[in-house]
């Protein structure tokens, strides 16, 4: 055999080539996987950032921000002490929650967390009166006032104004924004003079104390 003749493959050379090809494929796959992973992370964190900014700046629809007074809506035949009820009000997209505390107090709130809009749940067994709880980042709201008691939510829950008829049925009749009293919410939605409402409210509270 001359020195220019093609050399037969050395024993094991085919296996080496196959192994090399396999390594190349794995390296390419892991590159793709890393790129995909980075893309997913960027998309998710971008989405969260946009959502957070949108919630913070009020771009997203806020509970009960429609014009005018919403229509009254019967939400339950009865709500017993310790019970809660999920419902929608004032619109079909507006998640809300009603709770009846053990002393009979009935309270209604938006069930959309004021942090990043997760669903708020009722935890009856927590504390002396239960609490409203957002599992996304451990946000906690006072069941009696809707104010934030723990976690990152920047403000209290908007309220849903509930009334109870003599037959025990429960109706939602309006909403109040975070920090607004029920009376202020009703006044605003009915187009009444907000300042006059506040004066009337203060006078009413004064006469109750007297
Ligand atoms: S979304 Fe509720 S605490 Fe973050």
TrEMBL record:
SUPFAM superfamilies linked to this entry: ISP domain
UniProt KW keywords: 2Fe-2S, Disulfide bond, Iron, Iron-sulfur, Metal-binding
CDD domains found in the cross-reference section: Rieske
Keyword hit for Cytoplasm: no
Keyword rRNA-binding annotated: no
Cofactor(s) this protein cannot do without: [2Fe-2S] cluster
GO molecular function: 2 iron, 2 sulfur cluster binding; metal ion binding; monooxygenase activity; oxidoreductase activity, acting on paired donors, with incorporation or reduction of molecular oxygen
Domain of life: Bacteria
Start and end residues of each Rieske domain: 71-172
GO-annotated cellular components: membrane
Function according to Swiss-Prot or TrEMBL: Iron-sulfur subunit of the cytochrome bc1 complex, an essential component of the respiratory electron transport chain required for ATP synthesis. The bc1 complex catalyzes the oxidation of menaquinol and the reduction of cytochrome c in the respiratory chain. The bc1 complex operates through a Q-cycle mechanism that couples electron transfer to generation of the proton gradient that drives ATP synthesis.
Protein name as annotated: Cytochrome bc1 complex Rieske iron-sulfur subunit
Organism: Streptomyces filamentosus
């Amino acid at each position: 055999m001359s020195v220019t003749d093609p050399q037969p493959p050395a024993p094991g050379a085919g296996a080496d080539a196959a192994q090399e090809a396999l390594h190349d494929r794995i390296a390419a796959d892991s590159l793709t996987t890393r790129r995909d992973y980075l893309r997913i992370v960027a998309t998710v964190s971008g989405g969260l950032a946009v959502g957070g900014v949108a919630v913070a700046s009020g771009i997203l629809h806020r509970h009960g921000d429609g014009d005018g007074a919403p229509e009254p809506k019967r939400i339950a035949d009865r709500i017993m002490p310790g019970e809660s009820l999920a419902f929608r009000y004032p619109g079909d997209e507006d998640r809300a929650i009603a709770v009846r505390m053990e002393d009979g107090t009935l309270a209604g709130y938006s069930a959309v967390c004021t942090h990043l809009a997760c669903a708020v749940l009722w935890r009856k067994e927590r504390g002396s009166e239960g609490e409203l709880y957002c599992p996304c980042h451990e946000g906690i709201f006072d069941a009696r006032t809707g104010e934030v008691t723990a976690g990152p939510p920047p403000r209290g829950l908007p309220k849903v104004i509930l009334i109870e008829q003599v037959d025990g049925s429960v109706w939602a009749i309006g909403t109040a924004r975070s920090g607004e009293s029920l009376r202020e919410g009703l006044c605003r939605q009915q187009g009444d003079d907000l300042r006059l409402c506040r004066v009337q409210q203060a006078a009413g509270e004064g006469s109750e104390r007297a």
